[in-house]
Amino acid sequence: MAEEGPSKMELVEVKADDILPERRAFYDRFMVGTTWAAGATVVVLVLMWIFLV
Length: 53
Description:
By secondary structure, the protein is mostly helical.
């Protein structure tokens, strides 16, 4: 196995103000998707109850 030399990657400090808007947008989209998925599940179950019982 070849030996690896020192990494030339520079690491920068990540502050909460830098990533918070991206995380908030992801959370908001996740909650909208979850709400729609729960609503669709309820609709399917009600339709099954109506037509299969």
